[in-house]
Specification:
The protein is built from five helices and no strands. The chain is mostly helical. It folds into two domains: about 30 residues; about 70 residues. The N and C termini lie far apart (about 45 Å).
Length: about 120
């Protein structure tokens, strides 16, 4: 439900007051997202999955129990990754993807407008 004009004015006034009274806090709040903690855990889960994969493949040559431990690591990381994505939901995924695109400006998303530009240039 959208805010009324009066409510929006009150929020704008609170924001201006915060920027005047404590600019450092205002900057930290504007840069921090609710999903920042999820990004760190997702990174570690991806690393855990990769280590489990290497352990599983290398372990096959040594002993089946080493490969099984690698498989269990991969399974645990994949389940943890899926659980975090579920907890974040669609809004969280949009926030994470926006943060990723802001941190990596060289990565371009191919969209409908890009397809149209390519067709026009050929």
């Amino acid at each position: 439900m959208p805010l009324s004009e009066n409510e929006q004015n009150i929020l704008d006034e609170i924001e201006r007051h915060l920027h005047q009274s404590d600019p450092r806090l205002a900057r930290e709040v504007s840069e921090t997202t609710v999903y920042r903690h999820a990004l760190g855990s997702l990174k570690w889960l991806v690393v855990g999955f990769a280590v489990g994969l290497v352990l599983m493949v290398a372990g096959l040559a040594l002993h089946f129990m080493i490969a099984f431990v690698g498989f269990l690591m991969m399974l645990g990381a994949a389940l943890g990754f899926e659980r975090n994505l579920r907890l974040m939901g669609r809004a969280g995924l949009n926030s994470v993807s926006t943060a990723f695109r802001a941190a990596n400006p060289n990565v371009r998303r191919k969209g409908i407008s890009d397809d149209e530009e390519e067709e026009e240039s050929t």
